[in-house]
Amino acid sequence: MEYYLVKWKGWPDSTNTWEPLQNLKCPLLLQQFSNDKRNYLSQVKKGKAITPKDNNKTLKPAVAEYIVKKAKQRIALQRWQDELNRRKNHKGMIFVENTVDLEGPPSDFYYINEYKPAPGISLVNEATFGCSCMDCFFDKCCPAEAGVLLAYNKNQQIKIPPGTPIYECNSRCQCGPDCPNRIVQKGTQYSLCIFRTSNGRGWGVKTLVKIKRMSFVMEYVGEVITSEEAERRGQLYDNKGITYLFDLDYESDEFTVDAARYGNVSHFVNHSCDPNLQVFNVFIDNLDTRLPRIALFSTRTINAGEELTFDYQMKGSGDISSDSIDHSPAKKRVRTVCKCGAVTCRGYLN
C-alpha cells in the first residue's frame, strides 16, 4: 500500500503523519505531487529510460526534497499573487507562474500603482485647468489646448505616431469616466501573467488574452529620482546585470524612473530589440513636462500566451537612446548581454 507524508495546514511539522491514499481527499495536491516527481526525474535522467532498479519503494531524498521545495514555492507564489491583486487598482488580474525552477517571489520588491517620488522631489498631481466639452471626441479638448491631436480613435486605439505626447482629460475636466480621452488613467484592462522564462531571462510577463494592435497595455511606474542619483544607481545595476532605469527626457533630462524596488507589472517585462510594446509620454493631472507618465501600447496584435516586451533603449520621443549607440571608454559602464533572440538583436541591453 502507498503511504504519503502529509503536512497539515495550520499545524507544525512535528504533527506530520503518514496516510494511505484512501485517506487523502485532495486530488489537486496529489496531481501536483505526481507532476513534480515526474518533472524532477525527467530533469535528472535527461531523457534516459528509468530502469526497474530506479523504482524504489521509497522516494530518494533528493526527489523528496525537490517535491517539498516545489510545494513551498507554489504556496509562496500563490500568496504573492494574492498580494499583487490586493494592491493593484486596475481591472486586469495578475497571475504568477513558475514551471521552470525553484525561484520564489522577489524578496525586495514593492508593488505600487503610481510614481513614488524620492525624498526632495515633489509631484503635483492636480491639474490647473480642464475641459468643458460636451463630446471630447469632437470638441476642442485638452490635447488641442496643449497644441497636439487627440491620441485615440473611437476604438480606443492610439492613432498618433511615437514621440507625440498624449494629453488625457483630467480631474478638473467636466467630462465623465466614459470619456474617449480617458484610457491610460483607467489602468491595465488585460489579465497578465508574471512567469519564469526558460532561457535565463528571469521573470517575464505574458498576456492571457488577445490584445488588439495600438491598444494601451500598461503603465511603467517606479520611484522618481534625479538624473544624478540615476547615474549612481546605474553603475550598481550594470554590475549586477539588471536594468530598471527609465529616463524622463520628454523635454528635459532632470528625472528618471527607477522600477528596481518599487513598481508594477512592468517591472517584470523583458527587453526585446524587436518589441511588441511602444513607449508614449502621457500627461493627465500632472502637466509638468519634466515628469510625463510612461505608457506602453501594443505595436501589433498580441495573442493570448505571448510574452510582452519593450525596447529598454526606447525613449518617449520614439528614438533609440544614445546610450545604446555611444559606448565611449569614458563611460566605463559594464555592458549587459541581450538574450532577446530577435533577428535584429543589438547584442547588449545598455
Task: List the topology elements.
Elements (H helix, E strand, L loop, with lengths): L2 E4 L10 E4 L6 H19 L15 H27 L6 E4 L12 E2 L4 E2 L24 H4 L20 E2 L24 E5 L6 E5 L8 E5 L2 E4 H14 L4 E4 L6 E4 L3 E2 L6 E2 L5 E7 L9 E6 L10 E2 L40
What attributes characterize this protein structure?
four-stranded mixed sheet, 4 helices, about 350 residues
Beta-strand share of residues: 15-25%
Radius of gyration: 24 Å
* Structural class by helix and strand composition: alpha/beta
Compute the separation of the termini in Å.
Answer: 59 Å
Catalytic activity: L-lysyl(9)-[histone H3] + 3 S-adenosyl-L-methionine = N(6),N(6),N(6)-trimethyl-L-lysyl(9)-[histone H3] + 3 S-adenosyl-L-homocysteine + 3 H(+)
Keywords: Cell cycle, Centromere, Chromatin regulator, Chromosome, Differentiation, Metal-binding, Methyltransferase, Nucleus, Repressor, S-adenosyl-L-methionine, Transcription, Transcription regulation, Transferase, Zinc
Protein name: Histone-lysine N-methyltransferase
EC number: 2.1.1.355
Structure commentary:
With 350 residues, the protein is α/β, with parallel strands linked by helices. The chain is 18% helix and 18% strand. It contains 4 helices and 17 strands. It has helices at residues 27-45, 61-87, 142-145, 227-240; strands at residues 3-6, 17-20, 94-97, 110-111, 116-117, 166-167, 192-196, 203-207, 216-220, 223-226, 245-248, 255-258, 262-263, 270-271, 277-283, 293-298, 309-310. The chain has a 4-stranded mixed sheet with strand order 5-10-12-11. A 4-stranded mixed sheet has the order 6-15-16-9, with no helix packed on it. A hairpin with a 6-residue loop joins β11 and β12. The longest helix has 27 residues, at 61-87. Mean pLDDT is 89; it is low at 322-332.
